[in-house]
Amino acid sequence: MKNKKWNRWLCAAFVSTCVLVSMTACGKKEETKTETKAVVVETKSKETEAQEELEMHGVIKEYTGGKMTITTEDNKELSFTLTNATIECKNGIVSGDEVTIIYTGAINGTDTSKAVVMRIVDKGEKAELKEQNVSGTVAAVAMNTLTIKDNDGRTLSFMTTGAEAHYKNGIQAGNWVTIVYKGEIQGDNAQNVKVISITDDAPNVEEAKNQVTINDADKTVYATTTVHVRDNYSTDANSLGLLNTGDGVHETGESSNGWARVDYNGQTGYVYETYLTTDAPQPETQAPETQAPETQAPEPQPQPETQPAPDEPVANPDTFGGEELQMTGILKEATMHIITITSDEDGQDYTFNISDAEVHLSDGLAVGQSLVIKYQGTASSDATTCSVLNVDGSAMNENNEAPLTMTGRVIATSMNCVTIGTSDGAEVSFDIEDAQINCADGLQTDDNVTISYTENGDSNIHYALSVDDAQ
After folding, report:
1. CATH code linked to domain 131-209
2. H or E element that contains 397
3. Cβ(150)–Cβ(136) under 8 Å?
4. C-alpha–C-alpha distance, residues 270 and 233, integer Å
5. How far apart are CA 245 and CA 221, in angstroms?
6. Fewest CB atoms less than 10 Å from the CB: which of 1, 34, 55, 311?
7. Higher pLDDT pick, 356 / 47
8. Which residues are registered as beta bridge partners of 391?
9. In what order do the strands lie in the sheet containing 227-230?
10. Measured between alpha carbons, how far is residue 15 from residues 5, 12, 29, 180 in Å?
11. CATH homologous superfamily of domain 404-469?
12. Where do the structural domains in the chain lie, given as residue ranges?
């Protein structure tokens, strides 16, 4: 009996021991499995953090709206968003410049949506971009842009920030100019070249005039404002007379550079197309006559001599005689041949028509630069009360490190740059690495900002000093 009890006790002990061993083994297996999973997750995380940086070489085609397009060595066109990129190119972002794009992620064919650009640098040993030039007639001028029409019929708009400009014949539509620039014009897109200088007094201008082709035309056109009829297709040619607003004239020829040939009182004349339209003026409607009681007519009073409206390019230095006066001030606004400056002397704003003035500038028509105006007559807010003889900003700004200003809408930002769009259609980029950002909500796309900056002579990316919310 005792033996039976003893045997039962030994069996029970053996079974309990087996169960305990089995449970311990299962616990160890589950723990090992958990530890293995943790190691795998950690390994994947490290691989994600340390993505390989890759390179893509190419030539810049254009940069607009925060996207840069390059043509690769195998002739593909790839477009990249630069939000996470640092731009380190000596010339800035100039079309025709060779660059290397350093990125992570993947490029599949021409699909760059999975690529993240980290840096853009010059490719290899950097060669200087060569200077080139193009000549044409002025179609439009604004604070940050100059638009010309060349003999090939192209309409080219250039960003003129930081460019030296010398207009011997004034700033007006139809004036022939030569633009010296670095980079490559892409078809009719000149936005991403770096403009060095603008002048209407260069041998290239005369060469371009000699290459004009005029095609026959047969239509009636009407003057949109008071304008000279010239004896040749140039603003410095002799005037045969004036067309007043609404005057009709027979157009006999048209050129690709903007000048129209007309029959003016039996003479061959030329008028720039900006001042002509095929739309006939609407006849004035007369109010029905009403019978008024007889009253004694007042004595006629002498009327002051009327001057052309500010948008009429017929200003003449001889209109106002007398003493030559001078005013120094800061450029506030510019549209074509009308500029407004804030006088250094009294802080008031004065407006001038510079269509017939010799103009010399060192920073294009950038707001904030100092100008010296020489004129005859009376300076006022009305551009018709004086004739401007000379506008000079070159000597004032050559060694002046005072900042310029530009206002516009934020189009794009990268790690060290911001690009804004201005009211005159320019897209201008600034290096903000050392700038003070004073915007209430930080630097956000679509915000209107005012940037205080200094011009960068080597690049089309300028140095921002501060960025503020626009007032």
Report:
1. 2.40.50.140
2. helix 394-397
3. yes
4. 6
5. 11
6. 1
7. 356
8. 359, 373
9. 239-243, 227-230, 267-272, 259-264, 248-255, 214-223, 276-277
10. 16, 5, 21, 99
11. Nucleic acid-binding proteins (2.40.50.140)
12. 1-48, 54-122, 131-209, 214-277, 317-397, 404-469
Name which of 332, 387, 344, 311 is nearest 143 in CA terms: 332
Question: What is 54-122's CATH topology?
Answer: OB fold (Dihydrolipoamide Acetyltransferase, E2P) (2.40.50)
User: Beta strand pairing status for 325-335 and 370-377?
Assistant: antiparallel
pLDDT the model gives residue 399: 57
Size of the chain in residues? 471
Whole-angstrom distance, CA of residue 179 vs CA of residue 198: 5
Q: Which spans in 188-345 are helix H?
A: 203-209
Please give the model's pTM, rounded to 2 decimal places: 0.81
CATH architecture of the domain 214-277 equals: Roll (2.30)
User: Is 176:135 a contact under the CB 8 Å cutoff?
Assistant: yes
What's the mean pLDDT in 397-418? 86
363 forms beta bridges with 365
Q: How far apart are the first and last CA of the chain?
A: 108
**CA separation for the pair 265, 271 (Å, rounded):** 14
Q: What is the pLDDT at residue 33?
A: 38
Give the residue-averaged pLDDT of 118-126.
86
Domains 54-122 and 214-277 belong to one CATH topology: no
Phi-psi label, residue 96: left if phi above 0, alpha if psi -120 to 50, beta otherwise? left
Architecture (CATH level 2) of domain 317-397: Beta Barrel (2.40)
